[in-house]
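Job type: complex structure
Entries:
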Amino acid sequence: MLQIYNTLTKQKAPFKPLVEGQINMYVCGITVYDYCHIGHARVMVCFDVITRYLRARNWRVNYVRNITDVDDKIIKRAHENGETVEQLTERMIAAMHEDEDALGVLRPDQEPKATAHIDEILALISTLIEKGFAYPASNGDVYYRVERFAEYGKLTNQNVDELRSGSRVEVDEAKESPLDFVLWKAVKPGEVSWESPWGAGRPGWHIECSAMSKCCLGDTFDIHGGGPDLPFPHHENEIAQSEAANGCTYANHWMHAGPVRVNSEKMSKSLGNFFTIRDVLAKYDPEVVRFFLARVHYRSYIDYSEDSLKEARVMLERFYQALNGVSLPKSADESLDAGYEGAKAFELRFYEAMDDDFNTPKAISVLFEMVNELNKLKKTSESAAVALASKVLELAGILGLLQQNPDAFLKGADKEGEINAAAIEQLIEQRNAAKANKDYAQSDKIRDALAEQGVILKDSREGTSWFRES
RNA sequence: GGCGCGAUGGCAGAGUGGUCAUGCAGCGGACUGCAACUCCGUUAACGCCGGUUCGAUUCCGACUCGCGCCUCCA
């Protein structure tokens, strides 16, 4: 039984989709004015793992993640760069796709862009005005009338009076109330804009998600997700807009990923303490980064540091050491399960962990137990080892992990300025010759020399293999 | 000020009202020419103070500390 923590109710509850077997999920995506950082990567990987798992358990998932391709920051940045909004956003969308491809994040089923849904946005605003939940103001903006929506604040337990008194928002004369937020922003000179019944302008941030989710998934859908800083005000405002306009529940389950921290502070654009995905990928294998993110529960914070990345690398090495040398069949084969009865029990425990609000750390601990068993089986039963190893690969695949050739992962790619594979192989041959002559002084000298360059040798009955240490 | 979250062994990180997390590191063995890989064994924890209970790291309350949202931010 799948249980998911719901931000709305603040507790875990059994998950039940609107339509049996079908899950409609909307996740707030990126505002594309800069390269994605590790915090973005976390949300991407988190919902990628969730989608993969749900599909592995035979749910049909329609995963929609939007792209915000027009807003203040984009306009500002495009202007600074001397390029058009479209040039900037196209560039950043391409970069985002590169980053997520590297991390093994599967593309969402739909990636709607705000600028491609202006008609739906205008229609939604019209409905809100008709129903009295929104009003065009004297300055050309259209605002949402927050106090008209009785349930405002239900997602994050805010009450309107507290919000009003604690409001840090500058009072805008055009607004009826400081809490009101903008649905349609009147155009300023030199900005991109679209025509509307209320004058030229562009959509406010919150309305696009209400419009696009309605367009892609309907008035009510199963899961709405996003990053840690979105519940208030973004998601609160989405609820206000959609439920007022559509007259029904917006999303049944709200899921929010935890923050990535640096030195105990949230990694964020405004603090300037962020590391872009491409920066990190320049130093670490993408799978190491993915493992670093997956080994902590999705709702907890993660502290970003070089040490944690290195630790993630060491943990992956244990998996690949175990997998190395097991000759797996080319394609998945159910009959393999017969080779080792214990595989099924591990699988059940893995599912049990994932069914409990996607507990990836616990699921990974099961994989480690499987590795321990695998290492033992390798010494006793080839067929059982193959069966268990293929199960490890299958389950890890649900997390998007262990998809590389083990030997290639362990050896790593040749790098400029470091000893290359051919040179290593040559030294190993020299060492083996020395060993054959029982000239251990010489053979140890070669091994030590390689170790100094980060190359570790491993002798076995089959010969000498090597890997680069992390 | 309002609304939330967290505090677990040297580190990372799950979890549970009474018995094992898991990984890294450490220690002792096995394997090895010596190592590496691997295996076996092992050390070690539940912020502080009360309460409930036969029993609490786990439930309840207070406290301390840390963090997030309340302005754009995943």
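Summary: Residues 421-468 of chain A form one domain. The radius of gyration of chain A is 27 Å.
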